[in-house]
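1st attempt posting a full record on here, be nice pls
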Amino acid sequence: ACEELGVSVPGDLSLVGFNNAPIARLGSGLTTIEQPAAEIGRIAGNLLARRLCGEALAPCNLRLPVKLIVRGSSAGPRSSAGAPGPCPEEGQPMD
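the predicted structure (as tokens):
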């Protein structure tokens, strides 16, 4: 769609995906946020097992670390005026 509109990625528009699907590695690659899927599954399974055993659990929020994987679909801002701070380096956790 971007190409049809004459929009250059990442020249005019940066794209970022989520979950680091295998397709994100094709071509120059899609910058992506990788989440700890195995850890999410382990925690969810543990909570489900506890509920099935009759334990009453209060709702809770859990924050797990994610990782920014920089690939060819993203670039820094053209101008620093009003721009956010720099992105973390590849492989570094995001807050």
